[in-house]
Amino acid sequence: MRDTWLRLGQPLNQPYFPEEHIYLPRYSGAGGHLQMETVATQEQRLMHYIKWQQELTQMDQPRVHRNIKLKHLFAIGTQRLNGILRGELEREQQQHKDLLLLPRLHDDYLNLTEKLIQSLDALTRFYDFSYLLKVDDDTYVKLDNLLNELVSYDRKLLRNRADYGHDPQPELYWGYFNGRATIKTKGRWREPNYYLSKNYINYALGGGYVLSRKLCEHVANHSDLLSTYVSEDASLGTWLAPLRHVYRWHDPRFDTAYTPSKCHPYHLVLHKRNGRHMDDLYANKLCTHEIPGQRVFVSYYYDWTKPADKCCDTIVT
């Protein structure tokens, strides 16, 4: 990650993504709910992005050189680590200065939700930031493209702040959403304490998602009151569910499902990639993870007008 996609963010050297292709949600009325994108709008926006990508490669676009403040951190729980591992981490920290060490966390899969809470608590207390991108360590991010669109979104949001009047400004929760995930009753993901609904409340898949700072603060400030569940990503979706100012941006460019989808140049976040895949992606070899005949995940647009169990039937073609 250090040698590949984490190098793509500085300096950001791309033309701005056109703001007319950025969707800003509006409230249904004073005191109402944010209106999420329709399926048609999601499809149209993906087509605009693909066309914009093609234009970048086909003609000489003016470049905008921007230095955006970025900081990457690898969160690691250090509780119960032996002396040898602690020494290795200390040497790595001295060399790279990019470890977020969590002394009260035993780093284990079953503690991922607690790891998220402790990480958000530390980040909101010690770092000043506008947005947080959380990814797994087997995720590759086209960081320059993602940042470019995030900057355009933020610029448009700032320019239209007055349009929200007395309603709160939307807070971003950007990723690939699932509303029909069944609650597991056995195996590694067994969830014994989720009683809220038949399925998990809709959430962005944990391979990669973006949160605005205020949503990070909401979790950190109320962590002692929040029920935690085995799945970190499902927990986050449940915690944010009651908030009416959350903009859930479902994006098929986040390939973050349990298995990769068919490879496309428009993908921004790609989960389940090993070191060799990351090297290949960094060298613009996009699809080396694909195995002929292997089953692939089929991406969908999210229909926010339907019940959650019928959210995800419109396939991305």
UniProtKB/TrEMBL annotation:
Q: Where is this chain's protein located in or outside the cell?
A: Golgi apparatus membrane
Write the record's keywords in alphabetical order, separated by commas.
Glycosyltransferase, Golgi apparatus, Membrane, Signal-anchor, Transferase, Transmembrane, Transmembrane helix
Main location, first listed in the record: Golgi
Provide the E.C. number(s) assigned to this enzyme. 2.4.1.-
Question: What is the name of this protein?
Answer: Hexosyltransferase
Q: Which family does it belong to?
A: Belongs to the glycosyltransferase 31 family.
Q: List the Gene Ontology MF annotations in alphabetical order.
A: galactosylxylosylprotein 3-beta-galactosyltransferase activity
Which one GO biological process term can you cite for this protein?
A: glycosaminoglycan biosynthetic process
Taxonomy, superkingdom: Eukaryota
Q: Could you name the Gene Ontology cellular component terms for this entry?
A: Golgi membrane
The top EC class is transferase
The protein's matches in Pfam families, at most eight in alphabetical order, are given as:
Galactosyl_T
Q: Which Gene3D superfamilies match?
A: 3.90.550.50
How does the UniProt record describe the way this protein sits in the membrane? Answer: Single-pass type II membrane protein
